[in-house]
Amino acid sequence: MEEQIAQNCEQSLSVSKRHSLRALSSIRSLINNPNTSNSTLSSLLETLTRSLQLTDSDSLTRHHELTLLAGLSLRHPHFSPLISNSLRSNSLLFSSYSPRLAAAAALAVISDHTVDDRFFVSLCFASSVSVRLWLLRNAERFNVRPHLLFTVCLGLTKDPYPYVREAALNGLVCLLKHVVFEDVDLIQGCCCRAVELLRDHEDCVRCAAVRVVSEWGKMLIACIDEKNRIDCLDVVFIQLCSMIRDMRMEVRVEAFNALGKVGMISEIVLLQTLSKKVLGATKEKKFHSLGAAECFEISASAAAGTFVHGFEDEFYEVRKSACSSLGSLVILSEKFAGEALNLLVDMLNDDSVTVRLQALETMHIMVTCEHLNLEDKHMHMDEADVFSVLFFIGRSHGNFAACIIKEVCQEIEPDSDDKLGFDNARVAAFLVLAISVPLSCEQNVRSIPPQIFSYAVTLLGRISYALSDVMNQHSLMAYLSLCSRLSNFSEANFKGEDTPLHEAKSDDPNCTTEVSIGADIHMQKSSDEASKSRSWIHGKLKETATSRCQLEEEDEIWKALNIVLAKVRNVWSLVQSGFSKEALRILRACKEEVLTFKAESRGFDGALLFSLQYFKVLKLLTKGWEQFVPAKNIHHYEQGELEFLLGKLDRSLRELRCRFLGLSKEEELHVLELMLVSCLLRLSKFEICFYYTTMRNLSSTISHLEFLHQQGSTEPSNFVTAVKKSLFEINISHTSYRPSLFNQLLNSFSLSQLVFHGRLEHVHAELGVPDNSSENPVIFVSGLPVSIPFEITLYNISSVNRLWLRMTMSDETTQFVFLDSNLLGGCKDAKKFTYVAPFYRTPKASFTLRVCIGMECLFEDIHSVKGNGGPKRALAYLCNEKEVYFSRVSRG
């Protein structure tokens, strides 16, 4: 059948364009089919190379032909030398190709990673921009001599098209990953060109130029003598400092990233970066620039205020990068770290949480290198948190706060010279506590003198910043104004006066409300405005209380879930004692209890699904364990049943580890210990042990456990230590298979309590075939591939994951189709798309396929699987199997 299709394709390629494209489509199916014989593939290769030499072929057909040759070379590498030699022998043919065809030809010949210099250079300097760009971006796939690639990249930095210049600069950076250059003149020439491009009109080129100056600058520093090395370091650093005021945010981020990688810088240059004012020591300090002109000098003052500008930048990405870069430099000088701290503490109040975290990380680095010297002047930068806590105390415990304010009221009032002491941190704290009291209950309004709310207006900015999660500055102003008036009204009503709320006036001659607050909050505001403000305050208070109740409810769910998991730990003693039925009964009860949480949960699906899968693992583990415990009235499995049971246990553990994101180290260690138990159970039975495979899995799991323990600086459990010791002894002594040893290790296992430390994301998928049923099947022709349109939705999948479609017929014939990572796109939550997959092994009768999506477990060791082109690791399946129906039609 294959040979017949190949012959038909050869005839069709010479007939017409329509027939040619149809023939090329058939050829593609044969190339992609892993079961196509080598003789058929050889015939297709001859057909394609012969068709390329036809002078009357149109460019579209030639492009398809070259693409097919590239696919043949990639999928069947043993044909690569033949394809490469065939295309290289037609060098005159290349000259007649369009740039697009030349690129396709290049793709076809690089599969064996051997391209001669002349061919590579001729393509690099082709007239097409897309060809030059493609070649530069794929330069690492060619085995081109490094110095030739350097020459080409350096030359193309002068290309008129910006993306080519960017790719050429990136190529220069990539070269340093594989090659060490020692020619100082060559390195300096590269640096000079990069410095010139720091002033390029295009943003992407400037970003790439910054990277080249950084990486090649370090190479230049390494090559010169020690006498001039410090000056060279300073030059590279100052050159990069000149880019932190670039127009584009991306360039500024790249510049700060590069600054942290330079290395040992002169202290005076470092200190200059913290001050916009030019320091006396740097005013006269000059260096020779990395630029082309030898007479061109660069002043150390060019670094003035580098980090000041970075911390003041409007983009949080730049501020974060500046904090990170500072963390790399504070280890160089204690004096620099001390002065940098004055700027860094301001970043603890940054609007962006990522910046605040990075600032804390930088301070942690200062502590590590013993360069952190906190002074009293730095402590007021924690002020917002203190204000927030005091406000919460006054709102929750109004009577208590009112008593404190009554005792310290004299401290808040002006002194004998009528001067207010609001700059005093203690007074400011009392003001925040006082203004929160009315929110505890309405009766407490009269307990705070009205002028207190007026005094608080003088700290409006500081207080509103601390209370940003409760109210904004405008609302705080309205609240203070309302409380000032309500305090007066409550005082009047408390004295027994019947003055209506909207007519109430303050008779207190000492009230300074009108003086302190100003015209915006005068008493003449209408009662409607006061009513609106009061309603808003009560509404905001209710909203805050609701939010707090939600948090409390979430905490209760977490606590309840961990309590259920604690019960599971206690179940294990029953399993070890042989009471497996009782243990399974308790596990079922725990599962039912967790299912009741689902209706109440908000964002806990990952943790709940993990718990249910965990119970399933323990259920299988219990059923497997009872085969090794001498107890009465237990069910003994046959060999096939036990192997099936342990296979389900392995798959469930694999899913537990692969299909949940956000596992803490403790949770991952817990799962890995269960994987050890699964291996030992299998090794304890000679009939199902698969000794060498299982021992390899056991060793790999131990290695993962060791790595996690080292990362977390934690001690392994006694069980893990015993398994590790026994494994070492087996490897050293090459002892024969001893089931008793593995049984002994199993007895040392005890189940620790699983405790959740945070939320988990569940990795799963949905799979469907639109309009497909037993009444509406997909039509196919026997012996030919058939296309299946799938609608796929992926949840919490990243482009790092390797996904496969597994398609299985009733006779267990299985075919895998790889889902291209470009389709995944690094989606965090969900992504829906349509994917058309081919199925090649169509039978002679109507049939049904069972299809599901599997994800390679990247932690597994690479191994071979049945069938060509399938996954190299074990799969964790992300959805239930979907049945797809097919109906055969006869050929017309």
Describe the structure.
The chain is α+β, with helices and mostly antiparallel strands. It contains 38 helices and 13 strands. Helix 24 (398-412) packs antiparallel against helix 25 (425-436). The longest helix is centred in the middle third of the chain and has 50 residues, at 527-576. The radius of gyration is 37 Å and the shape is globular.
Uncertain runs with pLDDT below 50, 5 residues or more? Answer: 489-527
> End-to-end span in angstroms?
17 Å
Main β-sheet description: 6 strands, mixed
> Which term fits the overall shape?
globular
Helix content: 55-70%
Assign the structural class, choosing from mainly alpha, mainly beta, alpha/beta, alpha+beta, or little secondary structure: alpha+beta
Number of helices: 38
